[in-house]
Write a structure and sequence with these properties.
This protein is α/β, with parallel strands linked by helices. It has 4 helices and 10 strands, in the order E-H-E-E-E-H-E-H-E-E-H-E-E-E. The relative contact order is 0.12.
C-alpha cells in the first residue's frame, strides 16, 4: 500500500507538506535496509514507505514515506535497533505487565505511549516505564521547546538534554509525561 495517499511529502517549509526528507541520502539507504530486513524476518509490511509521491519538483534522493510493520517480535532487528526514520513497528502483548516489561527490557528508552481510559494503568505506565518521553493518550511524544527531549538508557548520549530546563539541569535523568484524557 502506498503511503502517499495519506501523507503529503515535499519541501518541509511548504505549508501543504506534512513530511520532509531524511537528513541525507545515506540515512535513507540505512532506513531502506531496515525495511528490507523487516520483510525478510517475517514482519508484515502494512504500509510501504518505499512508494511515495513528492509535492513539488524535488529529487527523491532523501525522501522516504512512512512504513508500518505488524507482527513484529522482540528478536527482530527492526525491534532491537533505533531506526531513526519513518518506520513504526507494532508488537503485540497480552497485558500491561507484558507491555511494561517489553519496553523496559529494551536497551533503548527514547519514548513510549499508552492509550487508556484507566487512571490506574496510566499511573503504572508513567512511573514504571523506563523511557525519557512518556505519552498518555497521545501518539508520538514530541516535546516543545519548553520541555526537555529526554532519552534514557542507550537512547541518551552525552550529559545534557538540550532543551528547556534540562539545558541547566544536566547530569540528570528525567521523564517527560504528556497526558490527554477524553
Amino acid at each position: 500500500m502506498s503511503a502517499c495517499r495519506w501523507v503529503r511529502m515535499g519541501y518541509g517549509l511548504d505549508e501543504r507538506v506534512q513530511m520532509g526528507p531524511l537528513q541525507a541520502e545515506g540515512r535513507k539507504k540505512r532506513v531502506l535496509g531496515y525495511i528490507e530486513r523487516g520483510v525478510e524476518e517475517g514482519a508484515k509490511l502494512l504500509l510501504d514507505g518505499r512508494r511515495f509521491t513528492i509535492v513539488g519538483d524535488y529529487p527523491e534522493a532523501c525522501f522516504l514515506g512512512p512504513s508500518i510493520f505488524q507482527d513484529v517480535t522482540e528478536d527482530m532487528v527492526i525491534a532491537q535497533d533505533e531506526i531513526f526514520g519513518p518506520v513504526m513497528n507494532v508488537l503485540s502483548v497480552q497485558d500491561l505487565d507484558e507491555a511494561i516489561a517489553l519496553v523496559n527490557n529494551s536497551a533503548f528508552g527514547n519514548a513510549a505511549s499508552i492509550f487508556t481510559s484507566s487512571g490506574s494503568a496510566s499511573r503504572r505506565f508513567q512511573y514504571e516505564i523506563q523511557c525519557g518521553n512518556v505519552g498518555i493518550n497521545i501518539g508520538i511524544v514530541a516535546p516543545m521547546a519548553f520541555f526537555p527531549f529526554s532519552g534514557m538508557k542507550a537512547s541518551f548520549y552525552g550529559d545534557l538534554h538540550g532543551q528547556g530546563k534540562d539545558a541547566i539541569n544536566f547530569f540528570t535523568e528525567q521523564k517527560v509525561v504528556i497526558v490527554r484524557w477524553f
